[in-house]
Amino acid sequence: MQIQAGIFLRSTKALRDTYFEDAVLYIAEHNSNGAVGFVINKTFGRSLNELVAYKNAGYFPLFAGGPVDTEHLFILHQSPELIADAMPVAAGIYMGGNFDQAVAAIRNNALTTTGIKIFVGYCGWDTGELEAEVEEGSWELVQGADPLLFAQA
Length: 153
Known about the structure:
By secondary structure, this protein is mainly beta. The chain has helices spanning about 100-105, 130-135, 150; strands spanning about 10, 25-30, 35-40, 45, 60-65, 70-75, 85-90, 95, 115-125, 140. Helix content is about 15%, strand content about 40%.
């Protein structure tokens, strides 16, 4: 299996009793420096409006994207026309961009939970680390995953 941006991975029993137990990842970036991904199926336990900086944003769920950089928010979305400076990932999915524009689009209902996910933290691997984890059996490819699965989780 070739790891690339836009694929989904599911943790195996090898990761039981770890942060990644029963996790589904979306790989958002993969290059010669390593990989970046987000756990897409685990909620964070707080919503966007519960964060002081976004108290007027209204309710919007947050997801526990990973154990790295949990002091920051990250976004995956389908709306580069609403969120400037977004980077294409694959199949109509974009990463990052102007977060204030994203919040404004959420406030005015131009973006809903089916078009954007907001993550606290991310998952990161140095060169070859993710490939080694797949090789040792910690992750398996989610076969036939719809590119929009991230919005449905």
